[in-house]
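Figure S4 source data
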Amino acid sequence: MTQRREEHWSTDDDALDWHDRITKDAIRAITRRRNSLGLSAQDVADETGNLGYEVPRNVIANWESGRRKTITIPELIVVAEALDIAPVELLFSPALGGWIDYLPELSHDRWSALTHFTGEARHSLGMYRLRLYRKHAQIWQELQEEHHAAFQLEFQLFQEEWPPSSQEKHDAFVAAIRERLQPVRAQLREIGMEVPYLAPSLGFLDAELPPLKTDPDLEDE
């Protein structure tokens, strides 16, 4: 659900600039998640350090006290990982309820804002690309589960070590990929997108796809 900001009720944050409001909202989500996990600011700082990009305890404390009003993309990503939550759920946390200003003059309920951000709620070429990648991931996961034994052959270095009947299972796996996954991979190629990696033993399937379209202007750079 979407509406212009002036059409919905005012809040205590109305006097803040949009970038301050949306940052404050993400910090509220960080605080809520941290408290729900029973973690201190130092616990979160320590875990971000373990992840290779430390966000110091005083930075986290300053966010939550309002003394620091900015949060960088790297900080958001690593703090989300430390809190075992998706970064987008900190940006547009449905758990907080109510509305959020997705743009300075355009408000969404939080779930609509989240799906708008992830490309699930709009119809354009860009969102079409995302839908194709999601469809590809879903089909690939299904094929791995349905043909688990054949997929595991990828980890056998030498084909002569395959168990009996493995070739038949592998052939059925390849046939299923051609039938169900290759059409999506072909669509991605046709709109100039790289196809997701499958596995070395399945690389021959890429030769069956249309050639990757490239931008001639980029080739000249």
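Figure S5 source data
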Amino acid sequence: MLVKNITGKRIKKLRRYKKVTQLQLAARLNLLGIDFDQTTISKIENQTRVLLDYEIKAIAQALGVDINDLFD
């Protein structure tokens, strides 16, 4: 498997810690103008989808964490 992002595992860990489902995270991101669905969140967490910088920023915002928390 080709790893396409370095934040996916950390996003999954933080999402679970915050007790947010993939569907809820996708909904939060949609409110921020990022058109994601549950499948996209799954691909990100499995590191099979590339993430753009503004998407990483929005994910941090949607989870209520500092952007640096998404990186090990």
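The chain has four helices and no strands. The CA atoms of residues 34 and 55 lie 7 Å apart.
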